[in-house]
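Lab notebook, bench 4. The sequencing result for the construct came back, and we need a structural model before the next group meeting so we can plan mutations. Quick request posted to the team channel:

Model the 3D structure of this chain.
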Amino acid sequence: MNIDDLEWQSRTLGGISPRLVTMLVERGEVELLVQAASERGEWFCARAAARELSRAGEVERALGVLEPFIEAGWNRACWERAEVLLEAGRVQQALDSVRPDQEGLASERVCYDFAKLLAKAGRLDEAIIVLTPHLDREWILSALVELTERQDRDEQVLQLIAPRAQRARSARGEERWNFSPSNAQDLQAQVLERAGRVDEAVRILGADIAAGHVVVQNTLIAYAELLSRHGRLEELRVLGTGERADETLTYYARALEDNGQADEAEAVLRRYIAAAEHPDRFRWPLIELLARQGRIEEAVEVGRPTFDYHDACLFDGVIHLLHEAGWLDDALALLDERSAEFVEEHPSWFSSNRIWLLGEAGRHEEALAYAETVPPETYGLTVDKARILEETGRLEEALILLRADTELRSSEVPEFLIRHGRAAEALAGMPSLAELHAAGRRRNAAMYAGRGPNNPSWTASSFSSAG
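Done. Here's the predicted structure in C-alpha cell form:
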C-alpha cells in the first residue's frame, strides 16, 4: 500500500471502483470488501467495509480495516475513522482525532469536513464558526445553508448571507462577472423561504431580476423555481413571457399544467415554437407535456423536425420516451427511418440503441443477428451483444465474449460476475492495483505520444474524447 496508488484510486476511481463496491455492498459481501482492503490495499473497499461494520456495531473491526490506510498517511482514512467513532458515540475522541490546526483552518476542504462532523455531533454553532472565514466561496456558503436546514438557525444564517448577497447585487453594475459567492442571492431567498418568509423571498429576488442585478443565470432559475413551488402564476407569467422567456417559459408552462390549465400551457409552448428565433428549446417541454397526457404520437411529431440536427437533436429523448411508454416497435421504426448518412455519422449510438430496443421487445435472436452485421470495431458492440446473451441466460457465452475483448473497461467482467453471484471470482480475476495503475500510465502515455497543443490532431481528439 502506498500513497501514489491511493491517490490514483481516488483521482481516477481506479481499482475496485465505487460502482463495484456498491454492487458488493448490495449483495452483503462485506467480508470480501474487508479482504480486498487488507490484501489489495483497495481504498473504496476499505471505506465501504468500515461503514458497513460500523452500522453493524462492529466498531473495532471497522477501525482495524482503516488503520493500515491511516498508517500509510492516507488522510481520508482519518476522516472515516472519525465517522466510525462518532457513530459509536465516542464524540470527543472523534472530533479530537481530526481537529484542524492553524494550517488546517486555512483549508476550505478541511473546514468543510470538520464542520460536517461537528454538525453530526450536534455542535452546530461550532460548525458555523469553522465555516465562517470561508463563506466567500460558493460551495462553502451552500454547505452552510445545507448544514443548518431545520436547525433553528435561519436568522443567524441570513445575517451571514446578507452582506454577500448585497455585494452580488452591486457586482453586475460594476461589471464584475467573476464575483464570488455568485450564489448568495438565491441562497438568501432559499433561507427566507424555509423560514416561512416566502413573500419576502419573492419580493427581494424579483426586484433583483427586474433590475438586472444578478451575476449568474442560476439566480434567474432559482427565482422561477421559487415562484413555481408556491403557485405564483402571475409573477411566473411576467417572467416566462418576458425578455428571459428562453430560460423561464418552461417553468410558467409547467405551473399552468400543475394548476389544471394544461391546454393553456400547450398553447403557450406552441406559440413560442412557432414564433421564437430559437424555438427548439421549447420543444422538449411540450413533448413531456403531451406524453404526460398519453398523446405519444403528437409528442413524437413535435420532436421530429430536430431528428437530423447536429445540435439540439431530440431523437435520443424521443426514443427513450417511446421505450418508457412501451411503444418499442414505434421506437424501432423511428430508428429504421434514419438515413444512411445519419447511421454513418452515429454508428455506435444507432447500433447500441437498435440492439437494446430489440432486446427490450423480446426479439433477442433478431438483436444478435443484427449485431453480427455491425462492424466489429464499433464502440460498445461487445457489451451490447453480451447484454443480449445475458438476458437469454447464455451466461458463459456472454462471459467468453467479454473476456475476449481487451479494449473493454476493466470492470466489465467483474460487474458481470458480481451480478450473477460470483463475487469472489470477480475480485480474484482483477489485476492488482499496481498493475492497473501502471496500465493507466501506459494508456496516458500512448494517448499523448506525438501530440501537443500545436498539433491539430491533439485538438480534434480532445473534442472527440469530450463528446
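The chain has a mean pLDDT of 92.
Will bring this to the meeting.
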